[in-house]
């Protein structure tokens, strides 16, 4: 697994946001496990996560209002893909069979965004920056930043077709995972940045899974347990000489970690 240090300014993931039911608890958890610190964003209800390298924020945290904590609200991580025109791309999402969960709107002084879903229901977001790109690429493997993007879909081929048509993503290598089917790597203008696969039957709905870089997978898993999280899959040794683990935080959000050392 690898992430290019020279990715294009659009049609790539640039930001990640955690929707959670307890901002304080989630902040403490990820501070302990990933090493982030959190600070006020200046926007109502939104905090920013700073990565270990301190070069720039890696993502945000949004607490779901108590009145909205019901089955209609999904807690979890949402990835933002940079685009040149949020409104135009959002329209293309619906034309291709997807859905709009939050219509395009402005973030004063930052840009414009929309929360959407692909035709199979996996949620992601679109982001159009105001002025210069506020999310420049970082060095491959930088601790605390996202090192891999993985789509768990109902129909892998149909899902790839949707994202290829929307963003121009291209296929890279494929891996045969036996009973789990084919794992399709994809690229966004450089080396592969993620993979797509058929979701397990036990998984209720398609979703995007984001892998955060950490230095060693064993100690990272230990920190997950110590902070009240759950290991749900792994650790596994994967191609590219990397180790991965998939986890759940105490509020129920699924995330993953990737490391060069066991």
Cα separation of the termini:
15 Å
Uncertain segments are 1-8, 66-72
Summarize the amount of helix as a percent range: 10-25%
Strand order across the largest sheet: 2-3-4-1-5-8-7-6
- CATH homologous superfamily annotation of the largest domain: 2,3-Dihydroxybiphenyl 1,2-Dioxygenase, domain 1
Instruction: Round the Cα radius of gyration to an integer and report it.
Output: 17 Å
Into which percentage range does the β-strand content fall? 35-45%
Query: Given the C-alpha coordinates, what overall shape results?
Result: globular
Itemize the secondary structure elements and their pairings.
Blueprint: E1 13-20, H1 23-33, E2 37-40, E3 46-50, E4 57-63, E5 76-82, H2 86-95, E6 99-107, E7 111-117, E8 123-129, E9 146-153, H3 156-167, E10 170-176, E11 182-187, E12 192-198, E13 207-213, H4 217-226, E14 230-238, E15 242-248, E16 254-259
Parallel strand pairs: 1-4, 5-8, 9-12, 13-16
Antiparallel strand pairs: 1-5, 2-3, 3-4, 6-7, 7-8, 9-13, 10-11, 11-12, 14-15, 15-16
């Amino acid at each position: 697994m690898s992430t290019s240090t020279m990715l294009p300014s659009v049609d790539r993931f640039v930001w990640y946001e955690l929707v959670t039911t307890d901002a304080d608890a989630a902040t403490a958890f990820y501070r302990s496990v990933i090493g982030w610190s959190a600070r006020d964003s200046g926007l109502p209800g939104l905090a920013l996560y700073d990565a270990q390298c301190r070069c720039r924020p890696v993502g945000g945290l949004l607490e779901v209002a108590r009145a909205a904590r019901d089955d209609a609200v999904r807690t979890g991580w949402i990835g933002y893909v940079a685009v040149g025109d949020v409104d135009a791309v959002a329209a293309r999402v619906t034309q291709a069979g997807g859905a709009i969960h939050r219509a395009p709107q402005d973030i004063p002084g930052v840009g414009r965004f929309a929360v959407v879903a692909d035709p199979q229901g996996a949620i992601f977001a679109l982001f159009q920056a105001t002025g210069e790109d506020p999310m420049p690429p970082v060095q491959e493997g930088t601790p605390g930043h996202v090192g891999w993007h993985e789509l768990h879909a109902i129909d892998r081929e149909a899902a790839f077709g949707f994202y290829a048509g929307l963003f121009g993503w291209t296929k890279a290598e494929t891996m045969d995972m036996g009973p789990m089917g084919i794992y399709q790597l994809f690229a966004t203008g450089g080396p592969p940045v993620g993979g797509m696969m058929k979701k397990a039957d036990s998984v209720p709905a398609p979703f995007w899974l984001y892998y955060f870089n950490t230095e060693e997978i064993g100690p990272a898993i230990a920190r997950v347990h110590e902070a009240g999280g759950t290991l749900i899959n792994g650790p596994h040794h994967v191609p590219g000489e990397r180790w991965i683990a998939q986890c759940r935080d105490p509020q129920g959000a699924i995330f993953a970690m990737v490391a060069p050392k066991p």
